[in-house]
Amino acid sequence: MEKAVGSPSVSGSYPQKNAEILSSQYGINLFLAGLLLTFAWAVHAVGISKSHLLSYLITLMLIQLLWMLWYLGRSCTQRRLIRDKDTHAGARWLKCGITLFAVITLILDSFKIGYYIDFSNCLSPTEGIFPVTHAVHTILQVYFLWCHAKDIIQSFKTLERFGVIHSVFTNLLLWTNGVLTESKHQLNEHKERLITLGFGNITIVLDDHAPQCNCTTTTLCSIFSQGIYYLYPFNIEYHILASTMLYVLWKNIGRKVEHHQQHKTPFKFHGITVGMIFGLVVLTSTIAIVVVYLIQIGRSKIKSELALTMFYLHAIFVLALMCTAGIVALLIYRLEDRSLDNSKNPARKLDAELLVGTAAGSWLLSWGSILAIICAQAHPKYTWYNLPYSVLVIIEKYIQNLFIIESIHREQEKVNDDIKTLRIVTISRGSTLSLTPAYKEIYNGRAAPESGEVPCLLKGSVCGRESHGSAKADVGQEKSSITRSASGVSFYSGNSVTNNKRRILKNIAAFLFLCNLSLWIPPAFGCRPEYDNGLEEIVFGFEPWIIVVNLAMPFSIFYRMHSAASLFEVNCKT
């Protein structure tokens, strides 16, 4: 009988599980085909041109546009139906962030359109169609994510799984295309910088995909070509954020959620002044370092060495501060006794996996630098600063990951400062019966007074005590007053300690948030000592090290932005 009763639910789960497996395999094959096409174009494979790659990407975007229009149309017809929502997915600050990146991506598309118009005589038509299609795709996708990122789809589940996973891997391919294009540009500049540092024995043919014709308007072409590469970091972040939000939507298809009210945790500047000040100092100094680095690097050997030394010293100082802040936060957590929230949450699980997974990119680069310093025969002075820098990168991300993952898994404190009801009482025939002990007495770990006094309810508006004489009543009132005063002092004392801990944690989260934004800026805008150091290329060889850097750097850049987003959430939650 038990097997008969349980069989319908078990058999009902098989089609959905198969649909999940089939859709994931479809997405992976879609991505691998695009990845090989991208690689073939990058290495100038015979018969593969950029127009083939762009045609493939345009086709994927058009398919996604059709699916999103169908989903939006079906949602409009079913507007009156109550749908389940994942309150943890698609936070407002995340939507605002992806909107900002999308706006800059639209500017990038307009630059590409202008670039195509100026070089239209020798460029394929697909290079003009691609930015137009991409702009439409960006606008509709941002609107879709604003309206439906929290949806838990319960109808047409099999079809929706394929539509969402198609969107996930389309964005990943667009991210890959952006990373490759930006990396090729960085590689050409890197070759010129190495020559000024005295590494002229490293030879490699510059990879140039420039149009083979003259520009109609030289000034505009220069603005478009240079501006495109400064905007690519925002385009890269946009696509990776979109793919993560869509992945959470895919994981939520067919999910059953418990209906409960989630407490909103808005961001507040109150109480985080210290963390913000120190963080803004780090942000300002980092921007100044990046500007000086980009100006000095490649000008001469002396200037390049000074730029690298300046970068390493600044980064060592910032990473040391971040390590200290993370250790203090973890020590505070060890002093607290709060349970972890282990409920099923795809968004939170993805955040934790992305933190550890993308940190591996910078860990790979750091270990490569450490090994190069140990094995190199000659060591220019500036390369020694690379050793503590690489070690601190490993330690800092290790500590920060622990802090963030524990923070997002900790249950929110349900204690409220303005507790109004201290005890539930029942007054009958002139006597008071206490049903529960005072909340502040539970909070401080002691039971109700044995003397039988009952504290006032709602600031003393209701008081009661059974008495047989006026003298005993007066004594009882004095004892009750003393008990309430002692309990109140203990409660506010404990609450003050808790508030101080929360204030410290919020300041640490705010400081780390701004530090991660600061450390995102240098690699995103071309300040990459892993390229310019030169020592790793000698030990590992130029091409092998450049391949490692080009594979690991995008993950390292994404880690900083994702960490900043997670720390913003931690600050709101603390």
From TrEMBL:
<comment type="similarity">
    <text>Belongs to the otopetrin family.</text>
</comment>
<protein>
    <submittedName>
        <fullName>OTOP1 protein</fullName>
    </submittedName>
</protein>
<feature type="transmembrane region" description="Helical">
    <location>
        <begin position="311"/>
        <end position="333"/>
    </location>
</feature>
<feature type="transmembrane region" description="Helical">
    <location>
        <begin position="538"/>
        <end position="559"/>
    </location>
</feature>
<feature type="transmembrane region" description="Helical">
    <location>
        <begin position="229"/>
        <end position="250"/>
    </location>
</feature>
<keyword id="KW-1133">Transmembrane helix</keyword>
<keyword id="KW-0406">Ion transport</keyword>
<feature type="transmembrane region" description="Helical">
    <location>
        <begin position="93"/>
        <end position="117"/>
    </location>
</feature>
<dbReference type="GO" id="GO:0005886">
    <property type="term" value="C:plasma membrane"/>
</dbReference>
<dbReference type="GO" id="GO:0015252">
    <property type="term" value="F:proton channel activity"/>
</dbReference>
<keyword id="KW-1003">Cell membrane</keyword>
<feature type="transmembrane region" description="Helical">
    <location>
        <begin position="26"/>
        <end position="47"/>
    </location>
</feature>
<feature type="transmembrane region" description="Helical">
    <location>
        <begin position="129"/>
        <end position="146"/>
    </location>
</feature>
<keyword id="KW-0472">Membrane</keyword>
<feature type="transmembrane region" description="Helical">
    <location>
        <begin position="271"/>
        <end position="295"/>
    </location>
</feature>
<dbReference type="GO" id="GO:0042472">
    <property type="term" value="P:inner ear morphogenesis"/>
</dbReference>
<keyword id="KW-0407">Ion channel</keyword>
<keyword id="KW-0375">Hydrogen ion transport</keyword>
<feature type="transmembrane region" description="Helical">
    <location>
        <begin position="53"/>
        <end position="72"/>
    </location>
</feature>
<dbReference type="InterPro" id="IPR004878">
    <property type="entry name" value="Otopetrin"/>
</dbReference>
<keyword id="KW-0813">Transport</keyword>
<keyword id="KW-0812">Transmembrane</keyword>
<feature type="transmembrane region" description="Helical">
    <location>
        <begin position="354"/>
        <end position="379"/>
    </location>
</feature>
<dbReference type="Pfam" id="PF03189">
    <property type="entry name" value="Otopetrin"/>
</dbReference>
<feature type="transmembrane region" description="Helical">
    <location>
        <begin position="508"/>
        <end position="526"/>
    </location>
</feature>
